[in-house]
Design a protein that fits this description.
The protein is built from 5 helices and 13 strands. With about 270 residues, it is α+β, with helices and mostly antiparallel strands. The chain starts with 19 loop residues before the first strand and ends with a strand. About 40% of the residues are buried.
């Protein structure tokens, strides 16, 4: 687990490479989709934190130009491409007037860690630990950058949904998408997992920390007992080598458990095996 990749982010705690042993577990082949989440909401009347707060973050180029001033309340100071949009939520991903009718098979977004944990409990599952997620994402390969090897576009073929062009102003969409895509838009890895790289960030169960040791071997690590932010893995459609080179399998980042945005989703896992 982990990486010593020299173009990684030391502050994220990507390394050192360390041996980890895991008990048997199952993990969903796909991230939770809008259709899946709608079934959960229909049965439970669940309100996401974005709906309770009344807003969520939307990437600026996904807001129609003619409605930008109407919809955007504010932008994040350090990252002005993130816009605070009142009414943005899982079923209105770009704010009022948008919907997910044509995106039923896209990953649900604008879900906080708390929302994701609630869905997982309803489904009699859990969020995967970071170790489980990384093991599954590797697809049986050891210390490769991506689920398929070390080359991002082998033979010029795009195998995941990330940013092409100049971030954050020009996404050429060479991979076919300039936002989220269907969870089965790209081939699965050798363990049968789809959309594990790019598309949307995926919440993990662990609290985030960046202090790891290469020894002794760990068994079923679950992260620290407490913290301020939860681990996210996999990168998103906004990741680019010039800015967020975190679509590598071992890359990691974090966010507070109540946070949501238009590029954050999740998938579920279950300890044990059938």
């Amino acid at each position: 687990m982990g990486t010593d990749y020299d173009r990684g982010f030391p502050q994220d705690g990507e390394g050192p490479v360390r041996p980890v042993t895991l008990s048997a577990f199952e993990i969903d082949a796909y991230p939770v989709t809008n259709e899946d989440f709608a079934a959960f909401v229909a049965e439970t009347r669940f309100l996401t934190e974005a709906e309770k707060f009344g807003w969520s973050f939307v990437f600026w180029s996904h807001i129609p130009d003619e409605r930008f001033e109407e919809l955007v309340e504010d932008t994040a100071a350090a990252t002005p491409w993130w816009c605070k949009v009142p009414g943005a939520a899982w079923n209105q991903p770009e704010g009022p007037g948008s919907d997910v009718n044509s995106r039923q098979n896209h990953p649900v977004v604008h879900v906080s860690w708390n929302d994701a944990a609630a869905y997982a409990a309803w489904a009699s599952k859990s969020l995967p630990t970071e170790a489980q997620w990384e093991f599954a994402a590797r697809g049986g390969l050891e210390q490769k950058l991506y689920p398929w090897g070390d080359e991002l576009t082998p033979g010029g073929k795009h195998l995941c949904n990330i940013w092409q062009g100049q971030f954050p102003v020009d996404d050429t969409g060479e991979d076919g998408y300039a936002g989220s895509c269907a969870v089965d838009a790209f081939p699965e890895n050798e363990y049968g997992l789809y959309s594990i790289t790019g598309n949307v960030w995926e919440w993990c169960a662990d609290w985030f920390h960046a202090d790891f040791s290469a020894a002794p071997p760990l068994r079923d690590p679950t992260g620290p007992a407490r913290g301020e932010a939860k681990v996210m893995k996999g990168g998103s459609f906004l990741c680019h080598a010039s800015y967020c080179n975190r679509y590598r399998v071992a890359a990691r980042t974090s966010n507070t458990p109540e946070s949501s945005a238009s590029n954050i989703g999740f998938r579920c896992a279950r300890n044990g095996a059938r």
